[in-house]
Amino acid sequence: MDSISLTRPDDWHLHLRDGDALRAVVAASARQFARAIVMPNLKPPVTTVAAAAAYRERIVAALRDAGGDAAVARFEPLMTLYLTDNTRADEIRRAIDSGFVKGVKLYPAGATTNSDEGVTDLRRLAPALEEMQRGALPLLIHGEVTDPAVDVFDREAVFIDTVLEPLRRTFPALRIVFEHITTRHAVQYVRDSSDAAAATLGATITAHHLLYNRNALFAGGIRPHWYCLPVLKREEHRAALVEAATGGDPRYFLGTDSAPHARGLKEHDCGCAGCFTALHAIELYATAFEQAGALQALEGFASFFGADFYRLPRNRDRIELRREPWQVPAELPFGDATLVPLAAGRTLPWRLAAPA
Ligand code: NCD
Ligand code: ZN
Fold this sequence. Notes:
Layout: E1 3-7, E2 11-14, H1 19-32, E3 35-38, H2 49-66, H3 70-74, E4 76-82, H4 89-98, E5 101-106, H5 126-135, E6 139-141, H6 155-170, E7 176-178, H7 184-193, E8 201-205, H8 207-211, H9 235-246, E9 252-254, H10 263-266, H11 281-291, H12 298-309, E10 318-327, E11 332-334, E12 337-339, E13 347-352
Parallel strand pairs: 2-3, 3-4, 4-5, 5-6, 6-7, 7-8, 8-9
Antiparallel strand pairs: 1-10, 10-13, 11-12
Helix pairs in contact: 1-2, 4-5
The chain binds N-carbamoyl-L-aspartate and zinc ion.
N-carbamoyl-L-aspartate binds at residues 15, 41, 112-114, 142, 228-229, 257, 259, 273-274.
């Protein structure tokens, strides 16, 4: 097979940043995807509908400035609110009524990049969560506990037992996306504890967690460009994620978690978490699916299941991938700095064809 034609995919978990960084990265996503769920972990975080509307305007302006083809101009940012201890039900109601806010993001305080204002006690947020449940506005969860006593590789599994399961018992109809799952525990939890037809629980999976295990972090030395949160796990977990992504189960769908950081902040004595994959996301996913002998399952995962979960129409236009090996650039411009994409310098077998 030398080419693959797919319904244009969407990215259900993306960090676009702001300012010069936004202008540097937004066109990459827009060339590949029709829409993206845009994460709200700016500094300060996007906590209100008014802030989300203003951020959306800045993204649209950056897209306009980026020029490029028609797909770039058509790219649709789907906005999210950042849940804090102070999020009130009336703000959630405004989000539901806005039409452009498609989810609310739960970062346990301190779990990851720019999450200091995240939630310390979910019980205080019952009114907001009830409103989301009533209005079918999905809660998007960074599923890691932050207790420093819990091993960093176990934080997702512990989160399932201590936070996610109790939350779902309290709010059984709340629609939840378990974001960027990284373990067989999460794969199993999504599969065994939810009814696919009811569609109350979905999960996104990144390309890097499908392609790499934690050895990539230490291959010949410490590799900061492979460091993200939740951190890469053992091979058995990667294998479980591949099985989930390629199995045609609509509860698992594409979310790149592309998270750009300036090169100097990754190659640092306290390097930032986040891998930049927006440039070559669909090529990375195609590589993972082909390695699993499951290219035929890529379209459902990348282009259908996320839209279905979010109750949005599937895209109508298509993209084409060609078997045309190319080398991932060593670095890219990023405002005053540079950015190192995941797998920089490596060769990928598939390449997104430029629009005709
Ligand atoms: C993300 C970022 O840099 O904003 N980093 C990451 O490692 N994934 C935050 C996040 O999604 O956890
Ligand atoms: Zn993320």
